[in-house]
Amino acid sequence: MLPADLVELMRSMGVFPAVLGTANKDGEVHMTFITWVYPISEKVLRFALSSGSKSAKNLQERAAACLMFFSLGKALACYGDVRMVVERIEDIKFPVSVFEMQINRVEDNLFPGGTVTGTIPFAHTGNLEKMVELDGLVIRAMKGQ
After folding, report:
1. SS3 per residue for the chain
2. pLDDT tens-digit series, residues 20-76
3. How many structural domains is the chain composed of?
4. How far apart are the C-alpha atoms of 114 and 110, rounded to whole Å?
5. For residues 40 and 26, what is the distance between their CA atoms, to the nearest angstrom?
6. CA angle at residue 114 from 109 to 118, to 5 degrees?
7. What is the CATH number of the domain that holds 68?
8. Which domain holds residue 106?
9. Contact present, 10 and 59 (Cβ < 8 Å)
């Protein structure tokens, strides 16, 4: 289960940098950086990916993943079963799918004598107005609105 303070932080930030791990049917692991993640609850996460991405294809073959979150004093690996809930977000010009993870296990990966001092630093580059609009469309789809 995700800590309540992390759930609130993720909701307040809109986009939340994380690392997603998936594997294909042969067990080959793929890691990627994502920012479209939204906690539905302390046990359910939704995240969005480009529909043709390696991660999205892997999730079609093997419906399990790990999301790694970093925030003040936390380095949490969340493992769970995943299913696609939106094949394609209609209002977006390129294909983006929404996935839902039922969290089965959360591991604290911090070690004694070390800590994390905040979230992964992230900023949009390029056309900020278009990125904010795109993020809004994706976040609404992840929320089921």
Report:
1. CCCHHHHHHHHHHCCCCEEEEEECCCCCEEEEEECCEEECCCCEEEEEEECCCHHHHHHHHCCEEEEEEEECCEEEEEEEEEEEEECCCCCCCCCEEEEEEEEEEEEECCCCCCCCCCCCCCCCCCCHHHHHHHHHHHHHHHHCC
2. 999 999 999 999 999 999 999 999 999 999 999 999 999 999 999 999 999 999 999
3. 1
4. 7
5. 31
6. 80
7. 2.30.110.10
8. 4-143
9. no
